[in-house]
Amino acid sequence: MDVRAVLADVASFGPFFAVSTDPAEQLDPSWRPLTHLYTDPAPLRDRIAQVRRVLGSDDRIAGSIAFQGLAARVLSAPFAAAVLHGVVPRLTPDVLHYRVSVTGPWPLWCPVPLAMNVPDVPATADTLAGLLFDDHLAPMVAAVRAQVSISPRVLWGSVASSVASGKRLVGVERPAAAGRAAEIAGRLLAAGPLAGTGDLLDPAAPDTAWTFRRRSCCLYYQVRGGGRCGDCVLLNRPPR
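Above: the chain's sequence. Below: its structure in token form.
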């Protein structure tokens, strides 16, 4: 299947699943490969500062929330493409580009989209884990922790939360794929740095197969009026 068509399909789930492949974007010099984000501290420092101003928080909370948004942007499209189409787009850090935005999530663009066909579930999960954990998220975790003092457990917990959220959304939007989404997501949550980040509980609607509860907190509850996320470890604890 044409990778551009695959990415266009999963982009219909919302902005966190969107990766542009429009060749006309090559005329915009503001695009930067994600390798730049992982090696140059300035863009990430500015993003954390922007989130801190918006939330009225400290650097630790801002770093956590900024990471959460970036991680979800990087992993959502490849996950949905693998579940729905049996392909893993080769969105490596040198191919996948970002552009700074001050009004919302940073857009992503891939000038030359390619993909690997991996219809088998175990191979799909292994391929996704290599692309997402090794190529993108481990460098992103390191880059954020170089900026703010925050536990890697918190950051990897946010990655796990994004995997579970992707599984839920794909299952809701494409019910026929809910079982495959749950199987691939479950394998990812048991792999590498995500192992032990949460628990798979009996499903609560709209989830099928299981509902995820993380063992850490993204710290959003410390923001004025922030509240607790649906998978937060603090949900069963009384408010402070």
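The helical segments are 3-11, 34-39, 41-55, 59-85, 121-147, 152-173, 178-189.
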